[in-house]
UniProtKB/TrEMBL annotation:
<protein>
    <submittedName>
        <fullName>Uncharacterized protein</fullName>
    </submittedName>
</protein>
<feature type="region of interest" description="Disordered">
    <location>
        <begin position="287"/>
        <end position="309"/>
    </location>
</feature>
<dbReference type="InterPro" id="IPR036691">
    <property type="entry name" value="Endo/exonu/phosph_ase_sf"/>
</dbReference>
Length: 309
């Protein structure tokens, strides 16, 4: 079966007033942008970033999103709210899966008494007419600390074993290393603005930012390998493959900043070695905004199709 996977960091999950926390829910939700972006191709599994307060108020956010997509002609999605590590907040990703075509084998709920961090946000499904297990995992890369991003990534190493069909869909807050992935305007102070706004993302030696400035890539280096200039390829890493790199896509996944700063690929669909060999040719895509003058989020949608039997 061909299974469509998608990741879309829909800003605050459509929460209309994310700075308020006093109403029920605060300001309500607007799913217009979510529907408009997802309608282009309804996936079997959608991982939506920033499900702000989706578990609260009777699940108004997650069930409202599922309802809006269904009424727009989408699939019969069931939402599975996820968790951010280290008390990251109530705006973790949410996994939506199509119960008509996929059977759930396991979902490791962070609220269950037997919860373990090694299974955080892990969904195991199989096609209704197949037996192979697809592992889907998500998270959100720590905003401030590359050590935390790398530690979280190391928890996925078993998903890269030879017999695992695995996909990690998330905003890593980090891009791949390499000349076609790293921004080239970090030395331009007119664009970089205040040091407090960017130094937490930079590589440091003994507490001093390296020059020329380069953003940290340690988590993705562990998962996918670090770029080797001499060999012109990635070396090291545990074998995960970035969907966009495999497809030869170099456009950014976040929108350009008003200051003119370059965008980067910080959103990712990462595939285990076994699953990377199951990608349907030509299916990998970073979707441009439906309306560039009025984008539906500050991130773009990513999608890919894989074959699971």
């Amino acid at each position: 079966m061909d299974i469509d996977l998608a990741y879309f960091n829909y800003a605050h999950g459509g929460l209309t007033n994310p700075t308020s926390r006093g109403e029920n829910p605060p300001g309500g939700y607007d799913f217009t942008g979510l529907v408009r972006v997802m309608r282009e191709r309804w996936p079997h599994v959608l991982v939506m970033g920033e499900g702000d307060l989706y578990e609260y108020f009777g699940g108004a956010g997650m069930w409202g999103a599922a309802e809006a997509m269904r009424e727009a002609g989408g699939r019969a999605y069931i939402p599975l709210p996820c968790q951010l590590p280290r008390e990251g907040g109530a705006f973790a990703p949410c996994i939506f899966f199509d119960a008509q075509t996929l059977i759930v084998k396991r979902f490791f709920d962070h609220r269950a008494p037997d919860f373990a961090a090694r299974n955080r946000n892990l969904l195991k499904v199989r096609p209704v007419d197949g037996e192979e297990i697809l592992h889907v995992v998500t998270g959100h890369g720590d905003l401030n600390e590359d050590v935390y991003r790398t530690a979280d990534a190391k928890g996925w190493r078993w998903l890269a074993y030879d017999d695992r069909l695995s996909a990690a869909l998330l905003d890593m807050n980090e891009h791949l290393s390499g000349p076609k992935r790293e921004p080239t305007d970090l030395e331009d102070r007119a664009l970089v603005e205040q040091p407090a706004r960017f130094l937490h993302r930079m590589r440091h030696t003994a507490g001093i930012p390296d020059r020329p400035y380069r953003r940290t890539t340690s988590a993705l280096d562990f998962l996918c390998g670090a770029w080797n200039d001499q060999e012109g390829r990635r070396t090291g890493g545990i074998g995960f493959v970035d969907m966009a790199e495999q497809a030869g896509i170099f456009t950014s996944t976040n929108l350009l900043k008003p200051s003119g700063r370059q965008g980067t690929q910080i959103d990712h669909i990462l595939l285990s070695p076994a699953l990377a060999n199951r990608v349907v040719p030509g299916s990998g895509c970073i979707h441009e905004p439906v309306d560039p003058d009025n984008p539906d989020s500050d991130h773009k949608r990513l999608s890919v199709t894989v074959r699971v039997g």
